[in-house]
Amino acid sequence: MALHLIHKLPFLKNSKLMTKYASYLNSAEFKVDPLLWIILSVLIAIIAGIGAWFLVGLIGLKQGIQVGGLFFLVLIDLLIGWPYLKAIQRIDKIEETLPDALRQMADTLRAGGTYEYALREIAISDYGPLQKEMNEVLRKLEEGENFQNALLTLSQNVDSRLVQRTVTIIIDSVYAGAGLANVLEEISEDVRAMHRLDKERKARTIMQVIFMFTAGGLVAPMIFGFVSTISAVLINAASAVATEVEKNTATKALNIINLSIQAYIFIESLATSLMISLMREGKMGKSIIYFPILLFVAYLSYIIAELMSMAIVGGM
Predict the structure, then answer these.
(1) Which of 51, 99, 306, 310 is least enclosed, having the fewest CB within 10 Å?
(2) pLDDT of 159 strictly over 90
(3) CATH 2.60.120 matches 95-198
(4) Which of 149, 114, 154 has the alpha carbon at shortest distance from 134?
(5) What is the DSSP string of 266-288?
(6) What is the pLDDT of residues 207-218, one digit of tens each?
(7) How large is the average pLDDT for residues 127-147?
(8) Average pLDDT of 102-115?
(9) Tens digit of pLDDT for each residue in 41-82?
(10) CA 132 vs CA 27, 82, 101, 102: distances in Å
(11) Cα Rg for the chain, rounded, in angstroms?
């Protein structure tokens, strides 16, 4: 993938973060310069945020800035995080099909096939992204690379610790002259057992995830929406008999309360998404899947509760 814009900027040329992000784009088969994609994502998010703020103002609601900021944050997270999500999905599919592929390789070797023939059998089977990577390994073999170097291409192209360890074990077994068929079968069983445990963990934590999502995305923001309205009503009632200085102080206090509540909702959504990610996926990086949805639902619940409570107490 071309990284010419990064190479032309000295402060980004040696950036590991940008190089990693470029690998995500390449893994997602999204042929675009990473710096251009980030800039484009920011511009789209800004335009969407301004548009949302303008539309909310036309409707006559007072939450235009909050809605505009919400659209900006959610969109920029989704757009910039999309290559990472696609790359993770691709790695998950490769890891999911890896046990069957290893078992097929073991059976082919037991039947008297060579290493190259075993790889070719996988390359013509329906293994999704793994099939494409095996075709790349075969291409290296056809170009004259030995089996070990060609197989290393798989671990270099797939950012997965499981795949990298599997490739290392296979290469070490070939060097040591061990029975590769038995080794492949044992690795296949270990990987299958690991996926089984992962599915069991997700099944056992589904109720906790639902509770955390409901509490962090619906219940708490709605309570804060009612609290915000009640605070405004009490301050407005007290301002009826207050001096001008006291009214200004009360208005500033109300603004601080509202900003504090909204900041807390943001932090709570982030913390909840991190906990859900660790609980279900075992990786904090996958919180990028949950955070935009949780943040959007939480702020939407807060705004709806605020509008409902204002209508109930006659604040509108």
Answers:
(1) 51
(2) no
(3) no
(4) 154
(5) HHHHHHHHHHHHHHHTS-GGGHH
(6) 888 998 899 889
(7) 84
(8) 84
(9) 999 999 998 988 888 878 766 777 878 888 888 888 888 888
(10) 12, 21, 13, 15
(11) 27
Say if CB 289 and CB 277 are below 8 A apart: yes
Q: Residue 123: CB partners within 8 Å, gap ≥ 6?
A: 131, 134, 135, 137, 138
Which of 231, 233, 222, 224 has its CA nearest to residue 314?
233
159 and 23 Cβ atoms separated by less than 8 Å: yes
Take residue 6 and report the two structure tokens written for it.
Answer: 């990064």
Q: What are phi and psi of 313, to 5 degrees?
A: -90, 0
Q: What is the pTM of this model?
A: 0.75
Instruction: Count the residues in the chain.
Output: 316
Report the C-alpha gap between 247 and 2 in whole angstroms: 60
Please provide the distance, in angstroms rounded to a whole number, between the alpha carbons at the two ends of the chain. 55
Which residue is listed with tokens 């929406």? Answer: 225
Alpha-carbon distances, residue 83 vs 44, 88, 282, 287, 288 (angstroms): 16, 9, 20, 14, 11
Asked if residue 278 has pLDDT above 80, the reply is yes
Domain boundaries, the chain: 95-198, 205-316
Residue 8's CB is within 10 A of a number of other CB atoms, namely 10
Task: Compute the distance between CA of residue 117 and CA of residue 125 in angstroms, rounded to an integer.
Answer: 13
